[in-house]
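A.,

Following up on our hallway conversation. Structure tokens first:
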């Protein structure tokens, strides 16, 4: 999966084409993503004992990963992703500006703490 939680993505097909939002959840097995504020579906609930009025609940619908593109924080456009793999980490690179798309991820070296008495 090239898209990660927290990524800013743009929808490139479907009725929400052109909308952007942050990825709230990645459904890896279904290759879909939930995007905040995009593809909101209304569910009409029948009245039940718990909720005698019934009602309408709005929930984002998952969108196929192939229908979204990552918005590069450097050039501000939806871009294709290249991957650069090094011994320590996988980096996602913007194909337009070659900027690193994983500014948040850093190589975390595990340091064993020495307990000195
Ligand atoms: Zn870029």
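Then the amino acids I'd put at each of the 117 positions:
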């Amino acid at each position: 999966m090239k898209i990660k939680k927290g990524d800013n993505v743009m929808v490139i097909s479907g009725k929400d084409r052109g909308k952007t939002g942050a990825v709230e959840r990645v459904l890896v097995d279904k290759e879909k993503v939930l995007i905040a504020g995009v593809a909101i579906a209304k569910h009409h609930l029948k009245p039940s004992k718990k909720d005698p009025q019934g009602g309408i609940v709005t929930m984002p619908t998952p969108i196929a990963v192939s229908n979204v593109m990552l918005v590069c924080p450097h050039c501000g456009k939806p871009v294709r992703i290249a991957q650069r793999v090094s011994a320590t980490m996988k980096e996602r690179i913007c194909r337009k500006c070659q900027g690193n798309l994983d500014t948040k991820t850093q190589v975390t070296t595990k340091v064993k703490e020495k307990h000195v008495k």
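Residues 79-104 form one domain. Curious whether your intuition agrees with the design.

B.
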